[in-house]
Amino acid sequence: MKLSFTTNVFGGWQWPVGKLARWAKDNGFQGIDVGPLTKTTEDEMRQAMKETGIEIPALIYCRNVLDVNKDTAAFHRRQVLDRVRWAGNLGIPLMVTATGRAQNLTLEQSLEPGLEFLGKEVLPLARGCGVKVALENCPAIGNVACSPAMWRKTFSGLPDLGLAYDPSHLVWQFIDPYIPMREFGARIVHVHAKDTEILPDVLQDVGIEGHGWWRYRMPGWGVINWTRIVSQLMEAGYDGYISIEHEDPVWDGTEEKVGRALNLGRELLTAIWA
């Protein structure tokens, strides 16, 4: 397994992709996942990979392609398709996205239109470009593929889709993050390393529909057992990237803190399988 990080964490400072790749190389990472907050072009990504030897294992665009605002939805759909083309042109093997979810529909009601866009537009294009498509399991990004039950429905309709597995999203839904790996291990083609911390005193005060009772943390700073996660990935035969997705409010605010947090995550994950 190799380590990367999602570039969005430096989005506030608008680091160009070349600087991101150089930082990754200097700090012991093998790759960077380029997300939508990184302003870049195909040529810039190609040059960054050539100059540094850093890989881009995935392009990421998780936005709501089923937004009730038709112009917004159309914009996001174009962005998804463009990134599939970029991935094909650059030899990037994976495009990570979401199903979309209309704000006025339930998860189940949004499933069919989401699968229609993926099945009729995204996947045929990806096959022609030699690119794999995977869904991230985040509920907050306009997405129905956020639980094992919904994964079954999604994958039964589109069997060549992969899963970009992020256990942090399961924790705050009170879903065991380890059990689904046994059933869906063969589907996992990318992994986001992000932890979740539950704040019991806040939860007792506001309940699950309140705010502030959970927050994302760096790997090792929440409740997830990363040795167990890595072990189950190994058992499933996974040999791809583990990508640190930094959304930790404690380790945010300055470039120095963000960099230190990414290195702490890298050290923890490397120590598990070193």
Oligomer: single chain
Structural class comes to alpha/beta
- Counted up, domains total 1
What topology, given as strand order, has the largest sheet? 2-1-10-7-6-5-4-3
Number-wise, the strands total 10
Instruction: List the helices and strands in order.
Output: EHEHEHEHEHEHHEEHEHEH
Radius of gyration, taken over Cα atoms and rounded to an integer in Å: 18 Å
- Per DSSP, the total helix count is 10
CATH architecture: Alpha-Beta Barrel
The portion of residues assigned to helices is: 40-55%
**CATH class placement:** Alpha Beta
Into which percentage range does the β-strand content fall?
A: 5-15%
Outline, from the CA principal axes?
Answer: globular
Poorly predicted residue ranges = none
User: Roughly how many Å apart are the termini?
Assistant: 10 Å
CATH topology: TIM Barrel
User: How would you sum up the major sheet?
Assistant: 8 strands, parallel
Q: What's the CATH H-level superfamily name?
A: Divalent-metal-dependent TIM barrel enzymes
Mean pLDDT, nearest integer?
96
